[in-house]
Amino acid sequence: MTGTPVRLDLSSPTRGPRGKPPKHFVDLTPEQRVAAVTELGEKPFRAKQLATHYFTHLTSDPALMTDLPKASRDKLVEGLFPTLLTAHRTQTADQGTTVKTLWHLFDGAKVESVLMRYANRTTLCISSQAGCGLACAFCATGQLGLTRNLSTAEIVEQVRSAARSLADGEVPGGPTRLTNVVFMGMGEPLANYKAVMETVRRLVAPTPDGLGMSARNVTVSTVGMVASMDKLADEGIPVTLALSLHAPDDELRSELVPVNTRWNVDEALDSAHRYFEKTGRRVSIEYALIRDINDHAWRADLLGEKLNARGRGWVHCNPIPLNPVPGSKWTASDPRVEQEFVARLRAHGIPTTIRDTRGSEIDGACGQLAAEEDE
């Protein structure tokens, strides 16, 4: 490791020391939206009109709400749609089809999101915390420490903004819709459980109460917070669960992923398997391949054995070539070692796909998000 180790932080503050974001329309349930509108002196049906503009037309611009009287729309937007995120910088890669946005939040905290357009889908990687308290040794975000949790609306605003950008044809390839959302940006999603689950509900609720996305196209990632993984399994929303494992043995994983000292490899895998049993959704195992650290053939065999010990057909493995982080001595595995690791997993019958590393040149790939201001 390099530099001073960052302390593992499981405190999970409700908002954080910087203060509470202003209440936003998205933070409210449909019933609360009606109450908020009437409190502003407007008719209850205005709540549905506002929801339609936000979740269907992807806008909170009063100038575009032409079905509302001007006086009403200005009052409602001012009261219910405070500015939570401001795009400070965007960077692009892959001929413009990968877009990383640095957001400034209302209190000066910073987060990033990454939008990726593929031939058959569009995926947005979103942040759920400013920084992260889990201190994974090879992750740029983990070395920042935790600033604060994001509110539901702060997370959803990342999604709405990306969806609007795609609808407006701002990403090469013509207008399209957002199909997939992954909670793999800054932060540990399950350490901000309430806001993340409220976000998921907004994503999958039918329009106009939400964005109408398929829960199967929403992925929630975790480093293995077992109690929250079990809670997620009971939510009745079949999102995809991704477990960031990175080592099959406790000795190494405790060094790479400090939360392993709280919930070890077997406990995390048992919880992941319970998730599959309750939801029927195949779990993804994320594994960053680090040269000469965790890419040994025997570790691939051990991983395959541990996964098969819990059954067949319940899991899919995603090895990820380690993305470079400034100041780190670690680097990606040799391609031949990577191929051998994958071959060993497949020999155990584990479906295995190397994860795409798009955006690495703009520090937008897995483990690279650090919300840096410099170009």
TrEMBL record:
<feature type="binding site">
    <location>
        <position position="139"/>
    </location>
    <ligand>
        <name>[4Fe-4S] cluster</name>
    </ligand>
</feature>
<keyword id="KW-1015">Disulfide bond</keyword>
<keyword id="KW-0479">Metal-binding</keyword>
<dbReference type="InterPro" id="IPR006638">
    <property type="entry name" value="Elp3/MiaA/NifB-like_rSAM"/>
</dbReference>
<feature type="domain" description="Radical SAM core">
    <location>
        <begin position="118"/>
        <end position="360"/>
    </location>
</feature>
<dbReference type="GO" id="GO:0070475">
    <property type="term" value="P:rRNA base methylation"/>
</dbReference>
<dbReference type="GO" id="GO:0019843">
    <property type="term" value="F:rRNA binding"/>
</dbReference>
<feature type="binding site">
    <location>
        <position position="136"/>
    </location>
    <ligand>
        <name>[4Fe-4S] cluster</name>
    </ligand>
</feature>
<feature type="binding site">
    <location>
        <position position="323"/>
    </location>
    <ligand>
        <name>S-adenosyl-L-methionine</name>
    </ligand>
</feature>
<feature type="binding site">
    <location>
        <position position="221"/>
    </location>
    <ligand>
        <name>S-adenosyl-L-methionine</name>
    </ligand>
</feature>
<dbReference type="InterPro" id="IPR007197">
    <property type="entry name" value="rSAM"/>
</dbReference>
<dbReference type="GO" id="GO:0005737">
    <property type="term" value="C:cytoplasm"/>
</dbReference>
<keyword id="KW-0004">4Fe-4S</keyword>
<dbReference type="GO" id="GO:0051539">
    <property type="term" value="F:4 iron, 4 sulfur cluster binding"/>
</dbReference>
<feature type="active site" description="S-methylcysteine intermediate">
    <location>
        <position position="366"/>
    </location>
</feature>
<protein>
    <recommendedName>
        <fullName>Probable dual-specificity RNA methyltransferase RlmN</fullName>
        <ecNumber>2.1.1.192</ecNumber>
    </recommendedName>
</protein>
<keyword id="KW-0819">tRNA processing</keyword>
<comment type="similarity">
    <text>Belongs to the radical SAM superfamily. RlmN family.</text>
</comment>
<dbReference type="GO" id="GO:0030488">
    <property type="term" value="P:tRNA methylation"/>
</dbReference>
<comment type="function">
    <text>Specifically methylates position 2 of adenine 2503 in 23S rRNA and position 2 of adenine 37 in tRNAs.</text>
</comment>
<dbReference type="Pfam" id="PF04055">
    <property type="entry name" value="Radical_SAM"/>
</dbReference>
<dbReference type="InterPro" id="IPR058240">
    <property type="entry name" value="rSAM_sf"/>
</dbReference>
<keyword id="KW-0963">Cytoplasm</keyword>
<dbReference type="GO" id="GO:0070040">
    <property type="term" value="F:rRNA (adenine(2503)-C2-)-methyltransferase activity"/>
</dbReference>
<feature type="binding site">
    <location>
        <begin position="244"/>
        <end position="246"/>
    </location>
    <ligand>
        <name>S-adenosyl-L-methionine</name>
    </ligand>
</feature>
<dbReference type="Pfam" id="PF21016">
    <property type="entry name" value="RlmN_N"/>
</dbReference>
<dbReference type="GO" id="GO:0002935">
    <property type="term" value="F:tRNA (adenine(37)-C2)-methyltransferase activity"/>
</dbReference>
<dbReference type="InterPro" id="IPR040072">
    <property type="entry name" value="Methyltransferase_A"/>
</dbReference>
<dbReference type="InterPro" id="IPR013785">
    <property type="entry name" value="Aldolase_TIM"/>
</dbReference>
<keyword id="KW-0698">rRNA processing</keyword>
<feature type="binding site">
    <location>
        <position position="132"/>
    </location>
    <ligand>
        <name>[4Fe-4S] cluster</name>
    </ligand>
</feature>
<feature type="binding site">
    <location>
        <begin position="187"/>
        <end position="188"/>
    </location>
    <ligand>
        <name>S-adenosyl-L-methionine</name>
    </ligand>
</feature>
<dbReference type="InterPro" id="IPR027492">
    <property type="entry name" value="RNA_MTrfase_RlmN"/>
</dbReference>
<feature type="active site" description="Proton acceptor">
    <location>
        <position position="112"/>
    </location>
</feature>
<keyword id="KW-0408">Iron</keyword>
<keyword id="KW-0808">Transferase</keyword>
<dbReference type="InterPro" id="IPR048641">
    <property type="entry name" value="RlmN_N"/>
</dbReference>
<keyword id="KW-0949">S-adenosyl-L-methionine</keyword>
<dbReference type="GO" id="GO:0046872">
    <property type="term" value="F:metal ion binding"/>
</dbReference>
<keyword id="KW-0411">Iron-sulfur</keyword>
<dbReference type="GO" id="GO:0000049">
    <property type="term" value="F:tRNA binding"/>
</dbReference>
<dbReference type="InterPro" id="IPR004383">
    <property type="entry name" value="rRNA_lsu_MTrfase_RlmN/Cfr"/>
</dbReference>
